[in-house]
Amino acid sequence: MKTVKTSPFTDQEPGTSGLRKQTKHFQQAHYLENFVQSIFSAIGNTVGKTLVLGGDGRFFNVPAIQTIIKMAAANGFSRLLIGQNGILSTPAASLLIRKYKTDGGIILSASHNPGGQNGDFGIKYNTPNGGPAPEKVTEAIYQNTLSISEYKIESNEDINLDTLGQTQINDMTVEIIDSVSDYADMMEDIYDFELIKQGVKSKTLSLCFDAMHAVTGPYAREIFINRLGLDASLVINSIPLEDFGGGHPDPNQAHAEELMKIMNSDQAPDLGAASDGDGDRNMILGQNFFVTPSDSLAVMSANITEIKAYKAGISGVARSMPTSQAVDKVAEKLGIPCYETPTGWKFFGNLLDANKIALCGEESFGTGSNHIREKDGIWAVLFWLNLLAIKKQSVEKIVSSHWTIYGRHYYGRHDYEAIDSNSANKLMMTLREKLTGLISKKVGDYTITDACDFAYTDPIDGSISAKQGIIIQLNPDARIIFRLSGTGTQGATLRVYLEKYEADSNKQSFDTTQVLEPLAELSKTIADIVHFTGRTSADVIT
Ligand code: G16
Questions:
Q1: Which CATH number applies to 2-179: 3.40.120.10, 3.40.50.460, 3.40.50.1440, 3.40.50.1010?
Q2: What would the pLDDT profile of 124-137 be if each residue is shown by its tens digit?
Q3: Is 342 in the pocket of ligand 1 (CB under 6 A)?
């Protein structure tokens, strides 16, 4: 065992979901090691503890895992559970932590960010409840990174990650486990696989799933093809590649091009879906029809008791603040609470643990439930597949019927990517300073009824998270939200979220872009976007 002298890096503060940097940045000497030792110090008393370890298979996944194995051995861990070939989707890792009651897990992923030598890499620690570390833990890790002076590492040979079985390093057992089977079994417990199989057999139910050359490939093949009998040729891009085939493994209309083409064609299957780099995001499509993640959450909530595992009903729901308020309408009707949290799955953890909620979601293509403590891409796809098998209606019909009952929330997110960080911070600061002056102002067809900086007090532990995004509330029934992304690796990304509610069913089938255009223009004026960013339009609209 070696103790290696090191000095702090000042840029290891975790963002919305762990530490994400360009891969080359991660590959510099001591960078990964410093962060891992800082996680171990935050866990404390690591002797005899156990961890789940795996990643989304992107470039640098395996070398990073080999390093973490050696460091875990040197820090006295007693057992590591590692996905075969180093592969674990984020939801599968969350499940394994909970199922095998480990002291948490380390997941290597930069999620939807591109991979490869010139792409991004990331690392996050999940706590023993299976969820992303809450802010007090990430803050402790960050503080450790600022004062670190040495780390411990074994000098053993690399472990064979390809073969299932156990290896011993000193007192530590390394167990290579099947990455897929526990997860696939859990999905069978939640959903009615027999009913879905009947639909598939009678050719009344079909799916095209795009794994985007990322981690869900093996999970999708086992569940959709082997267990449900769906058409194998429609599980596309299912071989995980270190660089995701050069693509951007972000399941949205802009990046899942091949899937969009299939779903917008005459031969489109009933359901189209995609997941991201580490398998926690999902996009849901019907034939020629896109379901916004916010609507998907609302439809799921309204139909939750149709699904085997949730038959008894649910205690409550939650959404991140910028997610549309579609789910609020459902919660109101069901008479259950709806919580509004800051962006970041970690904020749902306490609510799920305390059984205040059983279903939650975010506009950023994430939905999940109390079955684990991460958002879950394949779980969401199966939800829709199961719902289609029950309702025997098209995706579009299910969503438009939902709007008739609850009203439609037109929704769009405009991202200004890789802008200068200082200018982005100035934009937010300037906007913050003028918030109170905005109230009651008439802007276009709207009046600003409220303007505030979102702060959240966790109802369980009382922790406060301030400055979580600026909300401009408009009358009648619209919102514009401004916040800076916490997952990018180049400069800053300004996210502008636009939402407009329409209760009148005769006005619910308009084009989203057209409906939101006035709000998009307003957002530019209110935040002086062109001045601060030099951009006249957003780079990505989802
Ligand atoms: C992460 C978080 C999500 C968050 C998303 C976007 O997702 O887990 O909770 O909504 O980032 O965050 P931001 O707007 O700060 O970029 P993932 O899938 O990237 O891990």
A1: 3.40.120.10
A2: 999 999 999 999 99
A3: no
